[in-house]
């Protein structure tokens, strides 16, 4: 176990995060620490944890902890792309963030909270509350194609991916052939350019090892198997299992009180207009935090290898030569995780 801080030290760590009310003094990155390019891969539009994960990554990029270079929506449907677009535009307006969409992915996955209506909200003067970069999402590239474009010109082993949805777009990337962006196959391109992937999902050491929603839901399972079969062993994968996020509850009343200074905020509008007390937890937000703070704050399993066996169970085998890790559940850390997420929610 890679134990970096106990929970008391973690609280001290949080105390030195940037003030959520001081926009002029963002956290200054350590010049000796490598900075990574980041791509998010989200199934936004069904649960609210994606919203918080994206906000965390926007903030980190604006603070200089990483450089967010693009986003992929792995849940099919232009209304889902519109949600990612308005999030990019509202929270990351200082740069146009390239966006790619999935057109051949998981068919008809469950939608627990369908909140795409916020894309069409209007203010009292009848103007759009949340502007977007486009109204024609048919012009956006396929997600796997955007991946190839973004990866091609980046330094070797310099990109981290926050994958908080289905594995379908990553599979299409891995299965892709050389093109105008790179002479490398998808597998070779990922092997050369990607440092690590931070995924939400998986079950390890539990009574049931069925892979869980992102990996095992309906048509997602076959994509998950192909992902593990194709992913180069050199790429590190950090899993945040569902059991870890299950204990991190950010209830509606707390969200609304935390975003006190305005109603014109996408996250706040989701919580104002939809019933979000449906068992929502901060699963995806933990993957974003892992990407930023894994080596400082969180406990992970020893190195190993993860795959899905013929019984459709997720199997982890310790292996010092492996590059797969899963986050260890620690109930005492739930309050720490929530405090981190709340600070990022209100940081402006």
- The CATH architecture term is Alpha-Beta Complex
Query: What is the CATH superfamily classification?
Result: Ribonucleoside hydrolase-like
Helix fraction bin: 25-40%
How many E-type strands?
A: 9
Overall structural domain count: 1
Low-confidence segments, ≥5 residues, pLDDT <50? Answer: 18-32
Largest sheet: 7 strands, parallel
Protein described:
With 348 residues, the chain is an alpha/beta fold. It has one domain (7-19, 32-346): Alpha-Beta Complex (Inosine-uridine Nucleoside N-ribohydrolase, Chain A). Helices cover 36% and strands 14% of the residues. The chain is built from 13 helices and 9 strands. It has helices at residues 7-15, 49-63, 78-91, 143-152, 168-174, 186-193, 213-216, 220-230, 242-245, 252-258, 266-273, 283-297, 334-346, and strands at 36-42, 66-73, 99-101, 159-164, 194-200, 236-240, 304-308, 314-318, 324-326. The strands form 2 sheets. It has a 7-stranded parallel sheet with strand order 3-2-1-4-5-6-9, sandwiched between helices. Strands 7-8 form a two-stranded antiparallel sheet. Strand 1, helix 2 and strand 2 (66-73) form a beta-alpha-beta unit. It is globular, with a radius of gyration of 19 Å.
